[in-house]
Structures are given as C-alpha cells and as structure tokens.
Amino acid sequence: MGYFDALTSGYFKTAPDGSKLFFPWGVLGRGYTIDSEQDYERLRRQVKAYTIVSLVLIVGVTALQAYVGAVVLGALLIAFYLGWMRYLLRGLQASDERLSLQDSMTSQARAHSVTGLWLLQIGALAFVALGILILVVDPGNWLVAFGSIVFFRALRGLRGAPAHAAAARGDRPALARFFQMDTN
Questions:
Q1: Residues 20/68, Cβ–Cβ less than 8 Å
Q2: Which of 71, 98, 125 is the last residue in one of the domains?
Q3: Is 90 found in the same domain as 46?
Q4: Which of these, 69, 24, 28, 30, lies nearest to 51 by C-alpha position?
Q5: Residue 66 predicted with pLDDT over 90
Q6: Edge-to-edge strand list for the sheet holding 30-34
Q7: Residue 104 domain-assigned?
Q8: Does 169 have pLDDT greater than 70?
Q9: What is the domain count for the chain?
Q10: 105 within domain boundaries
C-alpha cells in the first residue's frame, strides 16, 4: 500500500458483522454502510483521488507563496467536499458505529510499513528544524516558520506510530527489536 492508500484507510472501517463503513467526517461523525464491495472500492479510489488532488493544489499554491490563494483554495476544496458528501450520503445508510481516534490511527498504521512510518517521523522532525532555522535566519518570514513548526510538530506528536504499526500487526518480535527487549 502507498502513502495515499494509508491516508485513505482512516476513512473506512470493517464492522464486526463484516460490512464496510465509511466515515466522511472521521472521528467527528457517524459511519455510513457501503452496500457492496464494488461501491467500497470505487469510494476508496474517489477519496484517494480527492486527497491527492487537494494536497497537490494546496502545496503548489503555497509553494508560490500565494498564501491568500492557498486559504481561498482550501475553502473551495472544503466546500466541494461538503457538497460531494451531501450528495453521496443520500444514497448510504447511516450506522450507529463511530470511528475512534484509536481505530483511525490503527488503520493508518497498519497500511504503512514500519520503515515508512519512521521516514514520515524523520521528515516531520526535519520540517520542524527547518522552521526553527527560518526563525533564526529570516525572522521576517516568521509566519512560514511558525506554520511549519506547529503543523509538523503536531505530526511528530504521533511519536509512537512506528511501534504502533508493529503492535497493530501483532508483530511482537518487531516490537522487541524496536525497543530492544526480550520477547519471552
């Protein structure tokens, strides 16, 4: 599985009865039952495409230092998502099932490799360091520095992710290697 497949997995869950559930609002809302495996796969592809396109557009506009444009684009993408979900959810049956933060994180951790999670952690730390460097070297660009520090520190806050991925897979030897402890 790739990076975007892992991000997308946080929107979905398999219920105890085997049915597939979709959580368009993540941990903030209820789930919706997906009728068929074909609908499930189609919806996963659509959510993945939306995620990729949104990220590319936001990063592209931000890289051009068009911050107001990035905010406007972000608002338009959110408005599109809200309209899309309003249309889509009319055809899905609401479920009483909720998605916990633990379920969402576990799903994403399982979809990533331990190496991939480590690389994401290292990348997040590098961006925090870059934000601090920008503050020191170019204090006039404090908004970019502050944004980098806050956003990537929040990602770094998931510091147990590599170990969590191994635990989610039930890989006790990998956990032992991670923590250098005995498995007996």
A1: no
A2: 98
A3: yes
A4: 24
A5: no
A6: 12-14, 20-22, 30-34, 93-98
A7: no
A8: no
A9: 2
A10: no
Which residues, 6 or more positions from 110, have their beta carbon under 8 angstroms from its beta carbon?
9, 165, 168, 169
Lowest mean pLDDT among 14-23, 70-79, 89-98, 108-117: 108-117
CB 165 within 8 A of CB 110: yes
Q: Please indicate whether residue 65 or residue 158 has the higher confidence score (pLDDT).
A: 65
Is residue 60 domain-shared with residue 123, that is, in the same domain? no
Cα 140 to the chain's mean position, in Å?
A: 31
CB proximity list for 58: less than 8 A, separation 6 or greater = 70, 73, 74, 77
> Which domain covers residue 2, as residue numbers?
1-98
Judgement on whether residues 28 and 69 belong to the same structural domain of the protein: yes
Going by pLDDT thresholds of 50, 70 and 90, the confidence category of residue 179 is very low
**What is the arithmetic mean of pLDDT over 131-155?**
82
Tokens of 76: 């338009």
Judge if 129 and 63 occupy the same domain.
no
pLDDT at residue 96 above 60? yes
Percent of the chain with pLDDT over 70: 83
Q: Is residue 37 part of a domain?
A: yes
The answer to whether residue 172 is domain-embedded is yes
